[in-house]
Structures are given as structure tokens and as C-alpha cells.
Amino acid sequence: MTINDRSLSDYLSGARTAEAQRIALLSKQIVSDIVADDSAEGRIKQRVVMATGNPAFADLLRFCNDPVSASVRAIRAGRYVYTDIKMVSVGISNDIERFGGKVVCALPDKMSPVNNEQTRASAGFLELGERPSDAIVVVGNAPSAALTLAAMAREGTRPALIVATPVGFVNAAESKAIIRELDIPSITTVGTQGGTPVAVAITNELLALAHS
After folding, report:
1. Rounded mean pLDDT, 124-148
2. How far is CA 153 from the centre of its chain?
3. Segment 50-105, tens digit of pLDDT
4. pTM score over 0.85
5. Inter-residue contact 7 to 49 (CB < 8 Å)
6. What phi and psi, each to the nearest 5 degrees, are found at residue 204?
7. Max CA distance (Å), the chain
8. Other Cβ atoms within 10 Å of 51 Cβ, number
9. Residues 6+ apart with CB under 8 A from 4
10. Of 11, 81, 196, 200, which sits 20 to 30 A from 137 (CA to CA)?
11. Residue 16's CB: how many other CB atoms inside 10 A?
12. How far is CA 83 from the centre of its chain?
């Protein structure tokens, strides 16, 4: 199965009827015309545009330090995927398990009193300790998680890949800019836009690439 075939298979996986498949194929064709790029990065852009319905995202994605190759190696090596919130972890395909990997949400169920001045997302990543090293870390929602992850990276935690697409008007743009400054492979969005659907779309397309 080629990269294109695998990606198309993922797009059609939820289409249970002939009409649903027709709509999915038509959508894929439209997006392929919007993002006329069949490279690995181009296919990630297509996936994000498909997930968001927003062609502008094709120009908002940033790829730093050869993230596609790094992610494919990590996925094939069975590395775990750590996410900031449960919605992101639920959206990621269980194809990761075929390689021996697993998706783990870092968000703690409860906050201890000592951590009341932190967000739950920040506390969750701190509690992981060194586990994100050599793993894939996906931050789809919380800027505080991205900032904490960047601080951890400066202290020696070295993920194989960081996907960071937090959304919002407080620290979202800044946190992603800081991630891009690290000498770690990353895929991010610029500015205030992003969110869970973007992070999930990126990660699922990386899984499709790893199957090629």
C-alpha cells in the first residue's frame, strides 16, 4: 500500500455506505486540489485542511528539524504517544498499537494541593518525568502544557517529536514559537489557531506514513 493509498484508506474508514464513501472521496479530491502537494508534508497539510474545513491551515503549519522522518522512526520503534488532554488521545488511531506503541493521556484525574498554582495539563507532563524522552508528544489544546514541555526539554527531556497546536489568545502563539526554537523535531501551527482536530489530523497522517 502506498502513502496515498494508506491515507485514502484512513479517510474512508468511517464511511459505512456508498454515499458516505462518495462524499469522502469527493472531499479528498477537493482538498488535493487546494493543497496540490503529494509530499509527506503536503499530505499532512491535506489531512489538516480536511479535518478543519479551513484551507488557511495549509499555510499555518510549520515543520522543524525533519519531523516526518523522526516520527516514522519513533512509530516503527513502538514509541508511546503522550497527549495533553483525553480528547486528543481518543482521536488518535489505534494503528499505533500495531507497532507496539500506545497512546497515553498525561492529564491527571486529580490535582494535589501542592500543584494548585499549575494547570492540570502542566502538572500532568511534569508527573511524566523522563517518559516523554524518545516518545511522541502531542499538545492539541493547552498552551501551558507546551510551555512546560519546552522547559522540560531544556532540562534534558528529549522527545522524538513534538506536535504542538494549542489554540487561544493567551500563550498559544508564544508557546508554539518556543517549541520551534528547540532543536527537537516538531510540527506546529503559527498564531492563535490550532486545536484538537489539528493535532489529531497531524498524528494520524504520521501513522499512515509509518505504514508505507
Report:
1. 94
2. 18
3. 999 999 999 999 999 999 999 999 999 999 999 999 999 999 998 899 999 999 99
4. yes
5. no
6. -70, -35
7. 55
8. 21
9. 38, 43
10. 11
11. 9
12. 9
Strand 61-64 to 186-189 pairing: antiparallel
First-residue to last-residue Cα distance in the chain = 6
Q: Which of 186, 130, 196, 127 is nearest to 160 (CA)?
A: 186
Name all domains of the chain by residue range, CATH numbers in brackets: 3-210 (3.40.50.10230)
Distance CA 8, CA 12 (A): 6
Question: How many Cβ atoms from other residues are within 10 Å of residue 183's Cβ?
Answer: 9
Assess whether pLDDT exceeds 60 at residue 3. no
DSSP 137-191: EEESS-HHHHHHHHHHHHTT---SEEEE---SSSSHHHHHHHHHHSSS-EEEE-T
Amino acid at 107: L
The answer, yes or no, to whether residue 160 has pLDDT greater than 50, is: yes
Take residue 77 and report the three cell numbers written for it.
Answer: 520503534
CB 162 within 8 A of CB 179: yes
Q: What gap in Å lies between CA 83 and CA 201, rounded to an integer? A: 14
Query: What does the block give as the cell for 205?
Result: 497522517
Residue pair 199/206 in contact (Cβ under 8 Å)? The answer is: no
